[in-house]
Amino acid sequence: MRFKGAKFYDIYAKPQIYAADILINSLKNYRQNYDDIYEIGAGSGVLTRLILSQLECKNLILNDLYESEFMSKFSTQIGDITQLKIKNKQDLIISSSVFQWINELDNLSYSLKFSLKNGGILAFSTFIDGTLKELSSFTNQSLEYKNLAQLRAIFSKNFEILNAQESQIKLKFSNLKELLTHLKHTGVNNIKGEFKLTKSSFEALNSHFKNDFSLSYKFAILILKN
């Protein structure tokens, strides 16, 4: 998502805010003080604000595909994290609600390991299988979400797993238009790009929800030690 044009993101991103909050609180059980922190996918600053208010750090670098207005106030490294070489060795690499967009998590896990100091921590939340199931049951499309067992298998090759847990949140909306507005402003829609909303598909989707306009978000939290 280009956060330059996503000024309403923080208003509608309740699942992303919920996941970031659980991530930070889980991380605090293991360590709260860091010299160098690197955040992947900082965007509008949902997780950054929690880092600044609840962790102690000397140096913070923010990454994303594009620099948002919020990020311009910080040290940044802009670009695709799967292609970048992270600046310096880090004590903590952290990310929330981003890794579901990355297909080659094996490669990412390997590269992040060598961007951390010995004993450094990789902490992230990511949406997993079961997210937006109400929508994918209609479109027959979905992102290729991993489940918790798959994430454990991928990251245990390079890290010691300190914590791996899953959680979920369910949002309820008054009608389909409100539901679609939420999806529009958060950039998460479970659709690969082949589905187009037309007047007829809107009416079919409206019937599909049977007056229960709910969306499920399921996510994993992993705290890993290098």
UniProtKB/TrEMBL annotation:
UniProt record, GO biological process: methylation
Q: Which SUPFAM superfamilies match?
A: S-adenosyl-L-methionine-dependent methyltransferases (SSF53335)
Q: What is its EC number?
A: 2.1.1.197
Question: Cross-referenced InterPro entries, in alphabetical order?
Answer: SAM-dependent_MTases_sf
MF term (GO), any: malonyl-CoA methyltransferase activity
Give UniProt keywords alphabetically: Methyltransferase, Transferase
Q: Does the keyword Methyltransferase apply?
A: yes
Protein name per Swiss-Prot or TrEMBL: Malonyl-[acp] methyltransferase
Instruction: Please report the organism this UniProt entry assigns to the protein.
Output: Campylobacter porcelli
